[in-house]
Design brief:
Serine Threonine Protein Phosphatase 5, Tetratricopeptide repeat; 14 helices; 4-stranded antiparallel β-sheet; 2 domains; 375 residues; alpha+beta; 4-stranded mixed β-sheet; Immunoglobulin-like
Amino acid sequence: MPTVHLRSFVLALTVFCGSLASAQGRPSGPRPSNNPSMPPEPPMMLLSGKVVLDDGTPPPERVAIQRVCNGSSRREGYTDSRGNFQIAFGRDHGLMQDATESTLSGRRAEALQNTLAPSAGYSNWIGCELRAVYPGYQSSLLMLNLDRDLQQQVGTIVLKRMGKGAGSTITVTSMQAPKEARQAYERGESSLAQRKFSEAEPQLRKAATIYPQFAAAWCLLGVAHEGEGRDADAVEDYRRSIAADPQFVNPHFALAALAMRTEKWEDAVRSTEEVEKMDSAAFPIVYFYNAVANYNLSNLGASEKSVRTFLAMDANHRHPESTLLLAEILEQRHDYAGAAEQKRNYLKIAPNAANAETVRASLKRLEDLSAASHN
């Protein structure tokens, strides 16, 4: 049986350890143009608001704020430690976008960018909304008010817990950490957001040393150690995070992702199954991880069950390669018609993928096998 490898997913490790996902840039004002024939950009719109959990308390971690326009999403900023946010809307903040943001290409992306560009005028922001993004939680939406007031209070975004598992992506130990530990944690978190692993490591270690029950600090320390190539230390950090708060699902997912990256399939199966039991709504990708791991262990039944579960959850087709995995499984079962159908699904979703020609060739082979089996 051929080994199935994951493509190079960009895992936002800091997201699943409950912190900033990407580098934060300070918004800048409009830049004057050296070309007098070019119209100046309109002034930036400063939006302020708050994010709370459905019990009215602020999230214990900083939360990303996304703008959603015409079905495309873009990260605009983050909350502070009290859940408040203030973002300069309509400017490039230099924030790294991750897999939760939409990506478009070609003419469609260009057209959409023109629609959303500040120079196009505020009227083009009609229908845009703001939402908060945190694993395992569903965000309410705030419609933008286009009354041209350059400083607006947009209101409160509410995060509601999804799923009914025993685990959570929020750990109560973060709220119990003393001030000095929190400050060291936030410094380490900011360094990690800039991928400065060697700078983050001592700050996160300090936070975990001051308050050994600081589960999120142990989890982020694991991320720092992974970034430094110290996988064994990272595993120990994630285990200490779990020991500090057994209901904190994030380090379980971190262990699953590490096991997938290092192709330790049995460890991957154990960790993904633990995440599924605790809070699969937070990290639905674990079903795909579980399917890949089980396939590589020749557990076709378990692999098929997991990949079909993931396909049902992946409504936006973010991971079309999951259809190729199902095709491999069905071909192993001599269901050539079913395998061919999955290859066709892949080509519908990703017709211009780098491997599209290879997939088309294998589709033709499967169609020939299917036809021959019915003769």
